[in-house]
Amino acid sequence: MTLYRISEVTLTASSTERAYQDILEELCKATAFPIAAILRFDPERDRLVVTAAWGLPTDVARVEMQVHDSLAGVAVRTGQPVAEFNAGARREMANDLLHDLGIQTYLAFPMVVSQEVAGTLIFAHTQAMEPDRRLVRWAESLANGVAQFIDRVTAHEELKESEQGYRRLAEELQQANLELERFAYSVSHDLRAPLRTMQGFAHALIQNFGDRLPGKARDYAQRIIASGQMSEILIRDLLAYSRLSFEDLELQPVALTKVVEAACEQLEGDLKETNTDLAVEGDLPQVLGQTTPLVQVLANLISNAIKFVPVGRRPRIRIRAEENDRWVRLWVQDNGIGIPTGQEDRIFRVFERLTEGGARPGTGIGLAIVRRGMERMSGRAGVEAVKGGEGSAFWLDIPRVEGASKGAWRRKKS
Fold first, then answer.
1. What is the pTM of this model?
2. Are 285 and 256 in contact (CB under 8 A)?
3. Pick from 120, 124, 39: nearest CA to 84
4. Range of the domain at 301
5. In angstroms, rounded to a whole number, what is the distance separating the alpha carbons of residues 82 and 111?
6. Is 249 left (phi over 0), alpha (psi -120 to 50) or beta?
7. pLDDT tens figures, 353-385
8. Are residues 202 and 270 in the same domain?
9. CA 189 – CA 88 distance, rounded (Å)
10. pLDDT tens digit string along 211-228?
């Protein structure tokens, strides 16, 4: 019955300290000993530390004793119970925390966890009394049960402390990332003004003094303009990536047909110039997302499909959708240079570019924007190789809308 009540105490106590006190109270009631204490063994310092006590002054909390100077230490050193009925006569009692109380009967039971003594469970009485042997055996077993409980509590507290530490670290890391992204946004935004000034002066130099400049000087001015234009594109992509990181995105139903139309309108010039064959296969459903970032994500995939094709090959893009219980998977399949095996995840990192595509236009941020945009909309992005090795099939997993209608896409003719 006592064991049952102790188990109940360990489950319902409001705190560890309260649980210790309630356990010792139950033990004192069951054994008729007015004093009980739990002492934890600190092997590094060879000391016993009072974890909890019942029937003792409150100031004994966290009292420490040398193991070799106490009767409780005998139980720790030997791993055997100590039962004294004339404790005051023992030399070890001189420095024991119970010395000044005139203790006569002193029982100390080693608390064993994983074959190691973790501390002692003590019972004491000011009267000399020989407890029943069955009580001693029961208390010895009980000490190990208490030890198991303390071990679980300690492990739980350490785990809780570790979890709190990791949570704090994650929060600090998240805050640092947010500050870094805001810094990148600020720097990218502020870089535009001097960059445009530089380009403006280079344009003015060619326009006003081009006929008097040597050929090499005109070439240098053209290179300044071209580098400025490339830097403008890089800053634009950095701003887009940073903006996706800290802007609030409220998900709402979005028609994928409208998203595809808007993305194609943005790239109409590139699609015409390259004579790209782009088609949507089947109807497209509604999804949960945000129109602007979805258009940006899709436009980046289509733009890559236009740019990254072997020389002399006409770009071909096919867009289709699949649905399951949770997602709409939007496929964007191209006939480009493909993705080498093992590089499927790397290409979604910032500034990561394939070696083969290094000489092609681009900033190395487009696919990072794709993945970040999808993550911010509770979605996913990935890529698979096309059978036959010609091209890639990029996919976007977007939360689906229950009972949403589908729409047919028609590319607008200009």
1. 0.51
2. yes
3. 124
4. 252-407
5. 12
6. beta
7. 654 444 555 567 788 888 988 998 899 999 998
8. no
9. 82
10. 888 989 989 888 888 888
